[in-house]
Amino acid sequence: MTIWLSAGILFTFFCIGCILFKWGNVRCIGVTPVSTFTFIAILFTSGLDVGLIMFPLTEFAGYGDIVTNPEYAFTNPLAIEFGYWAFLIWGFYFLTCFYFCIIEPKVQFFSIPIIKFINNLVIIGTCAFTAYLLLSNLPWYIPQLADEGALTASFYLIVLVVISAAVYSSTDIRYVRLLSLASTWLFFALIALMWAGALLTDEGNASEFLNTFNLLSGYFSNIHQFVLPLNTYHEFYLYWWFAWSIMIGQFTARFVGGMRTYQIFLAMLIFPSIPIAVWFVGLYYYHLNELIIPGWLNAFMIAVGILFVINSLDSLIRLYTDNLNLTIARVGKVSYFIGNLLTLSGLTLLFTLDFLQIQWVGAIVIGLMFSCLLFIIFTRFKSVIEIDSSPAENILDFHSIERTR
Predict the structure, then answer these.
(1) Which of 62, 95, 146, 148 has the CA that lies 20 to 30 A from 400?
(2) pTM: predicted TM-score of the whole model, two decimal places
(3) Domain containing residue 286
């Protein structure tokens, strides 16, 4: 699995280099273009889930234990956490976003029936894994409802409500956009509250807090260390990002609003990384100083984390139902709601039984990427080489929208 993952990573970065060299200045326009801020908000909230809120406080200690994990000795826990979640890793999303915006309309690889089927299995499976992550981490965040750390009926009910809300939100693209913007602003508010909670307490020290930012330089000075997997846990993260990459690319490609390719690349690496860095710095300061997170702030963290899950799920549900032509217009709202609810709830339970693993999903995605390259080389190479713009119909629609503004 490590060799397969490493091959997929090297292939991904090679393709990114080729895209920037060949099409770096092309204006990218999706089928539903939006403003740059809205695009970044959709990307950020769709491309992340509850793990961003819940994982770091449980992981810093492990990254700092270099006796047990000597592979982490090259830098500090904050830099490692950042490397697992931010900057370079967002290049995966750039590759797939560009592909589905510019190349797939010419290639139509994902319209091949068997590829379409596999792709949608990946999307549905990753949706269920996202719900499973929420379920498995709730006992840590809401210990009052846990039975000695174990899952209880209350946690299953919470996840069922979250899946239901996501399915309902997916019924209208307006909900998806509004939730993306709301999630973004609420996350900024959470960061502000976390900072205030650290700085306004007796234990808080503004100078020490701000100096924590300097630890992030440990990532950028060792960025090459994060390209290939450091250990099995890093493999888990990288396979997780691969599992998300194709479907996030499919979904976000439709919202690109005229940015040039190199601008999308920079925007995807930089803009999501800034709030992630600010958030992780706050969490790491709490960890270093053993500060207690107040109950009201913990509740707000849980609420934002749950909103992230809803936001991730609704966009992916929207994607696979469109791909499979299981839209409300075709099957009806009631059937749409019940069918998606039962499917995702059932698959979430399979993850709790270790019947499914996200690494398998990521491995399938890497296989799809290699297969797509071979398909292009043998059947569509000339057409791809000749691409010099976004699809003509997208350009026309974009100019029509611009004239009405």
Answers:
(1) 95
(2) 0.86
(3) 2-404
